[in-house]
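INTERNAL AUDIT FORM
Audit reference: QA-55
Scope: verify that the stored structure record matches its stored sequence.
Auditor: D.O.
Record contents follow.
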Amino acid sequence: MTKFQGVDYYNLDGLLSEEELLVRDTVREFVDDNVLPIIEKHNRAGTFPIDLVPKMAELGMFGSTLPAKYGCAEMNNVAYGLVMQELERGDSQQGNEANPLLRDSIVASVGEGPGGAAYPSLNGRKHGRPLLPQ
């Protein structure tokens, strides 16, 4: 299978940092090597490729923008968006809300950071108890 090279009509790659390009290229390679070869079979069978979860975790795709002190990748939001873009390329089942690969990656990543929606609730300010270790 030919590796996806991407299309950059607007020269956006020139706006990305080396770290962001590395994140994008790493996830792109993961999708090419691990997702694309199996995803149609799983889609037809109505199954989830659970064997991908540890690999995704190892690459820092879960809670990717959460702080490193929680064992997360602490990516910036651009890098996180590039992760989502590449995962969506590999498995775009009716948009990302229905996509288990994306949904599981998004769970702890939407709206974190000072003033974000999820971050305060993870630290217990919203629910009265911390969900992440203090």
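Auditor finding: record pair retrieved intact. The two ends are 46 Å apart (CA to CA).
Action required: none
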